[in-house]
Amino acid sequence: MSQPERWSVSWNGSDGQLEAREPTRPEVEAAAARLSGWYNEEHNRSMMSNDEEMDPDDVGDHFDSVWKEGGRNFLLYAEGRLMGDADLRHVDPATHTGEFAILIGERNVQGRGYGTRFALMLHALAFTALGLERIYVSIIPANRGSLRLFEKLGYERDDSPAARSYIDEDDDVTMSFGRGDFLRLHGDTARQLVIARRPPEDSALP
Questions:
Q1: Residue 206 in 3-state DSSP?
Q2: How many whole angstroms separate alpha carbon 28 and alpha carbon 75?
Q3: Domains of the chain
Q4: What's the sign of the alpha-carbon dihedral 45, 51, 56, 60?
Q5: 3-state secondary structure of 1
Q6: How far does Cα 23 stand from its chain's mean position?
Q7: CB 84: neighbour CB atoms within 10 A?
Q8: 1 HSE (CA, 13 A, CB side)
Q9: How high is the pLDDT of residue 205?
Q10: For residue 2, is pLDDT > 70?
């Protein structure tokens, strides 16, 4: 399954402009070396339960794979500086659900609220323009930072069969967040965001 268009979402706040965009292939290629370094960094790797080194070509293959399976990849920027990436994967058009993952790459900026703000932006996009109704996350218990991020956003523990279908290990923590709760908690902030289709010349499929 391929999407006919790509999206971006931006937020002008007190700490400058944040932007999350679905990248074109050249944008992925430009970011691949830095993303590879972040994926392979010891702490990040352990929090993602990533057992394999990823070189820049592997990064490109990962982005292509998510896209071709109907998911959505995003590159994250603060004032034009690459900060990390995120994706909506396992998107199911029948149930209007998907799984979310996010990485703020540089260790010295983790824990400063960027992950929460970018996640809020992407959930606004997912629950409005993309039409999702519920989003799931699966997190290893040691990843306290991600657990705090999603709790702050409004996620609640979810041990339903649907949520547990996303686990990699039996002790993974599963949580979910519905569209109605998101709009109730973050509707005012979501209205400050600029959600837009990327221009056709930027939206060609890989």
A1: coil
A2: 8
A3: 7-194 (3.40.630.30)
A4: negative
A5: coil
A6: 13
A7: 25
A8: 11
A9: 46
A10: no
